[in-house]
Design brief:
The protein is of the alpha+beta class. Helix 1 runs antiparallel to helix 3, helix 9 packs antiparallel against helix 14 and helix 14 runs antiparallel to helix 15. The two termini are 18 Å apart. The structure holds flavin-adenine dinucleotide (FAD). Flavin-adenine dinucleotide (FAD) binds next to strand 3, helix 5 and strand 10.
Length: 457
């Protein structure tokens, strides 16, 4: 039994859709991560579920690791081939299969990106709301239980996936869930696979919940002298039940990055970027009420607009925040980390983190989806500088400890991959051992994305 025997068999099934070309292997051994490249031994490009099943059966018989690949935008070393093996790249399984407009759902293959899906849906008046900023694949988003700027209104992938087709570690093809809006029929296997990071099976089809495109959208931006004022504005807005579609915090370092990278003209202080969805009247009314809270909290420069071009410019700037922050330090690479805390502890969590980074030897802008209590630090290090990488890891470590101390989680949306493995015991206690039991039962040979989520021998 060997990886090479699996590859020889797979090439008979896939022909030139199995690649061992060095650039392909290198590309699939990294993703947006600070971990060193760990390439697979081959990359498979299946075109349908039966092929995925054949790939997994062959790999299972040869004890060959199988790593799913969507768009490679994950941040915690999720796709690193720690034991080599075969990377299954879903880019050729990227179709919209059925749009059920009357039921507001859509069936898709996993390789479609969220931007392509929304382009396809445009004429239907519907859209898929989960938006991690990066143009990730829907399969990868389900596998990481992704969320992003709109989760405060529409929820995360957990809330927006109705059903799945999954290829298990022995090659069996199963279906979880249905197109019904709810069900009490047994264990919730859909939720088990959403967020399993490819460690329990490969997702080959997804049924997603859709939303109607809002009649009106208002977006706004405002500045604050202190982080605490910005965060308290968020908390009050939520407590008053003003329905926000997005509410994003950026700190003063990120505002500087926007000025340099995107030519913005922002005061270099903390800001909130917000969006409201509704009718013409309700979106304007929500923006007006939010403006009153901003005034009460001492916010400045509150401006709102219903113009599509203003909105596009605002969110393009936000979506490019990662690259803007990277550009703050020439040639830098980043350790990106996220935590999520109960909203009442958010100000504390952000301020402690800000102080910790300021007292360190490296820059690290902070930004996040604060409506959910979730924020990120983009810790900028010189490539190859191991001392700085250690500083970044220490900061990230203290963020994880802070999240747990404040009743939160070590990752709100990026996932565990390899980067957050060391905190799983602290967050879940015996629950982590139960995750290990589930994994052993579904994947006894530990071939599905080994080395992620769990530490198994
Ligand atoms: C600039 C930037 C901003 C980001 N912002 C956010 C954000 O706001 N919110 C957020 O949640 N994330 C964010 N991310 C992280 C990233 O976009 C998400 O983790 C995303 O869900 C990964 O999707 P992907 O298609 O790139 O998956 P990949 O990176 O290709 O894979 C991720 C994981 O899913 C597994 N996988 C992929 N496809 C399948 C499949 N079909 N079946 C089973 N397993 C599979 C892989 O094995 C791996 O474990 C950001 C990343 C970047 C670079």
């Amino acid at each position: 039994m060997s990886i090479q025997s699996a590859i020889a068999e797979l090439s008979l099934v896939l022909g030139d859709r199995l690649s061992s070309a060095k650039p392909d292997l290198e590309l699939h051994g990294q993703s947006e991560t600070h971990f060193t490249t760990m390439p697979p031994d081959a990359v498979a490009y299946p075109e349908n579920t039966d092929e995925v099943s054949k790939i997994v059966r062959i790999c299972a018989a040869q004890d060959c690791p199988v790593i799913g690949w969507g768009a490679g935008t994950s941040l915690e070393g999720h796709t690193s081939a720690v034991r080599g093996g075969v990377c299954v790249d879903f880019s050729r399984m990227n179709k919209v299969l059925v749009v059920n407009a009357e039921d507001m759902d859509v069936v898709v293959q996993p390789g479609i990106t969220r931007e392509d899906l929304n382009t396809d849906l445009r004429a239907t008046g519907l859209f898929f709301p989960v938006d991690p900023g990066a143009n990730a694949s829907i399969g990868g988003m389900a596998a990481t239980r992704a969320s992003g700027t709109t989760a405060v209104r529409y929820g995360t992938m957990r809330d927006n996936v109705r059903a799945l087709e999954v290829v298990l570690a022995d090659g069996r093809i199963i279906r979880t869930g249905s197109r019904a809006r709810k069900s009490s029929a047994g264990y919730d296997l859909t939720s088990l696979f959403v967020g399993s990071e490819g460690t329990l099976g490969l997702i080959t089809e997804l049924t997603l919940k859709l939303q109607g495109q809002p009649e009106a959208v208002a977006s706004a931006i405002c500045a604050f002298d202190a982080i605490e004022d910005a965060v308290n504005t968020v908390i009050t807005t939520i407590q008053m039940g003003i329905p926000m579609a997005r509410i994003e915090f950026v700190d003063s370092a990120t505002a500087t990055a926007f000025n340099i990278y995107a030519g913005a003209n922002m005061p270099e202080v903390p800001h909130l970027l917000v969006e409201f969805h509704g009718s013409d009247t309700s979106a304007s009314e929500d923006a007006r009420r939010f403006g009153e809270i901003v005034d009460d909290m001492g916010g400045k420069g509150f401006e709102w607009s219903t113009k599509a071009e203003d909105r596009r410019a605002l969110w393009a700037m936000r979506h490019n925040a990662y690259y803007a922050c990277l550009a703050l330090r020439r040639g830098a690479t980043a350790l990106v980390t996220d935590i999520c805390v109960p909203i009442s502890r958010l100000a504390e969590a952000v301020e402690e983190t800000r102080a910790d980074i300021t007292n360190s030897s490296i820059p690290g802008p902070i930004l996040g989806h604060v409506g959910d209590g979730n924020f990120h630090a983009i810790l900028l290090v010189e490539p190859g500088n191991t001392k700085e990488l250690e500083v970044a890891k220490d900061l990230s470590h203290r963020m994880a400890e802070r999240a747990l101390r404040l009743g939160g989680t070590i990752t709100g949306e990026h996932g565990v991959g390899m980067g957050k493995l060391d905190y799983m015991q602290a967050e879940h206690g015996d629950g982590w051992a139960v995750m290990g039991d589930i994994k052993r039962s579904l994947d006894p040979k530990n071939i599905m994305n080994p080395g992620k989520v769990l530490k198994l021998n």
